Amino acid sequence: MPAAVAVRDVGFGPREAPILEQISFALERGHFMGIVGPNGAGKSTLMQLLVGSLAPTRGTIHFNGVPMDPAHRRAILQRIAFVHQLQDHHPTLPIIVEEVVAMGHPDHRRWWWRRSAVRAEIGRVLEQVGIAGCQQRDYRYLSGGQRQRVRLARALLRRPDVLLLDEPSAALDTPAQEQLYRLLRALCDDEGKTVIMVEHDIAAISAFVDSVACLNRTIHHHAKRGEQVPVQVWQDMYGEHMHVVAHDHDCIGCHPERSGAP
Q: Of 42, 101, 206, 207, whose CB neighbour count within 10 A is largest?
């Protein structure tokens, strides 16, 4: 059976100054991968490559054995969903939550489609993300965290095989972040979805993900559960001034011998 997501030697940008280079990984169905790295590391660019908004300069990307190329992109996008970074602005046009979530349905733009046909499903995904009963609320007046949950519900309405998220917890408080990570873990375990999530805080996600890819232009290390990321990898990514302090020895990426270091 082909991997749910297979990225092989992908690069982007000119060879003399690449934004990304030699990116390779393969994820099976139900795998939850976190991507961490400094600002400007190419994390958002990688997500744009995965959804086909950008085309790799080199290498290939496959979903369930099907290449992400112009001939197959439309069909692949029916089976994946992308929650991009929440931009720091407030919507101005009046629209209710139910309408926002409905936009995620694959048939939303078809002339014969009616929102009423999926009203129960919209209620289900809103309950799933922890904001049940808000279908008729004005989206403009929700908090940033609530809007982020609505956007996640919109993605889940597609019933995607692969879910891509670019810093989805940025507008959430700590309890809501943990609720989000638990939901994503359950989607992998219970529904077999494959999740790729960009995050800054490796400690926050380490209890939930199956692996962490350390990215700064290339993947310096891909740590699986129970594996430690060498200190040199962090220093290669963030600079020689980087010091690692392990607060939890079960954390993916923690380095126990440095625990308690200043």
A: 101
Q: Give, in degrees to the nearest 5, the angle at Cα 142 between 140 and 147.
A: 95
Cα–Cα distance, 123 to 61 (Å, whole number): 34
- Reduced to 3 states (helix: H, G, I; strand: E, B; else coil), residue 82 is strand
DSSP states of 122-189 as a string?
HHHHHHHTT-TT-TTSBGGGS-HHHHHHHHHHHHHTT--SEEEEESTTTT--HHHHHHHHHHHHHHHH
Interval 198-225: pLDDT, tens: 998 888 888 899 999 999 999 988 888 7
Helices (H), the chain: 43-50, 73-77, 97-102, 119-128, 144-156, 174-191, 202-205, 231-238
173 and 232 inside one domain: yes
Asked if 7 contacts 61 with a C-beta cutoff of 8 angstroms, the reply is yes
Q: Select from 138, 159, 180 the last residue of a domain.
A: 159
Which of 110, 129, 159 marks a domain boundary? 159
Considering the domain architecture, whether residues 106 and 147 belong to the same structural domain is answered as: yes
How do residues 102-125 score in pLDDT, each as one tens digit?
998 888 877 777 888 889 999 999
Return d(Cα 234, Cα 242) in angstroms, integer.
7
Q: Say what the pLDDT of residue 56 is.
A: 97
Closest CA to 100 of 75, 131, 69, 64: 131
- CB crowding 150-172: b at 16 or more within 10 Å, else e: bbbbbbbbbbbbbbbbbbbbebb
Host domain of residue 219:
1-79+160-262
Q: Quick one: which of 198, 83, 50 has its CA closest to 150?
A: 83
List the beta bridge partners of residue 26.
Answer: 6
Is the pLDDT score of 154 beyond 80?
yes
- Report the DSSP pairing between strands 58-63 and 32-36: unpaired
